[in-house]
Amino acid sequence: MLKSKYILFVVFLLSAVAVSAQKAERNYIRKGNRLFNDSIFVDAEVNYRKALEVNPKSTVSMYNLGNTLSQQQKFQDAMEQYVSASNIEKDKMKLAHIYHNMGVLLQAGKDYAKAVDAYKMSLRNNPTDDETRYNLALAQKMLKDQQQNQQNQDQNQDQNKDQQKQDQNKDKQNDQKQDEKKDQQQPPKSEKQNNQMSKENAEQLLNSVMQDEKDVQDKVKKQQKVMQGGRLEKDW
To answer: Cα(177)–Cα(7) distance, rounded to whole angstroms?
Structure first.
């Protein structure tokens, strides 16, 4: 009997604690909502975080905290809250809101491909949301424009690379032509030396030939003298 009473007391105590925690969570969320509506986002953030301390699985607190962080330009932190809420929440309407806001953040960050996916997830959970449908169409158009611009940039870069390569080849050819022209106009030093030595050799050779020619003439004169001085005998 005493054991049963003890169990009932523990159950009652736990229920009271749970009710108290739920009440505290609701109070923090309500206070945070009032501050959010008054654009006092820092204080609103504090209250939503307190609500999460009471109930770490509160998707409402996560979603509202994400909105507050977004208003403070803390987009990465806001996205983390939305992702955490989407992993826990089961209600379709709430999921639609979560994915819609994820899409808005992604679109603002120009991540249009992921924004499109987020809007599609939102519409799967709430197909009648015209605002999300409009955002989806806009994100799809911006994604198409982004892809086209990227393609044009890639083509321009390729063309610029080809042009630069052609210019480099032209410069190289011009340099080669200039070098060849210089070589023709100004022979190498070794070649000049060879020319000078050839001239000296030619003079030496000429002197040698002249000397040889003089020797030959002298020999011819001697022979003529000899021939002229002797008797000519005919062999007949």
So the answer is: 104
**Predicted TM-score of the model (pTM):** 0.61
Give the tokens for residue 183. Answer: 């070589």
Structure tokens at 99: 């994915």
Q: Which of the residue ranges 13-17, 32-36, 119-123 would you say has the lowest mean pLDDT? A: 13-17
Residues 77-114: tens digit of each pLDDT: 999 999 999 999 999 999 999 999 999 999 999 999 99
CA distance 123 to 118: 9
The amino acid that residue 92 corresponds to is: K
pLDDT the model gives residue 68: 97
Residue type, 201: N
Tokens standing for 103?
């899409």
Q: At what angle do helices 59-71 and 2-37 cross, to 10 degrees?
A: 20
Q: How far is residue 173's CA from residue 167's CA, in Å, rounded to a whole number?
A: 10
Angle at 98 between CA 95 and CA 104, to 5 degrees: 140
CB 100 within 8 A of CB 119: yes
Cβ(80)–Cβ(93) below 8 Å: no
DSSP string, 103-127: HHHHHHTT-HHHHHHHHHHHHHH-T
Task: Tell me, rounded to whole angstroms, the distance of Cα 101 from its chain centroid.
Answer: 29
Q: Is the dihedral of CA 200, 201, 205, 208 positive or negative?
A: positive
> Which residues have C-beta within 8 Å of that of residue 75, sequence separation ≥ 6?
69, 105, 108, 109
Per-residue model confidence as pLDDT tens digits over 133-171: 999 999 999 999 999 999 888 887 877 777 787 778 777
State the pLDDT confidence band at 123, using cuts at 50, 70 and 90.
very high
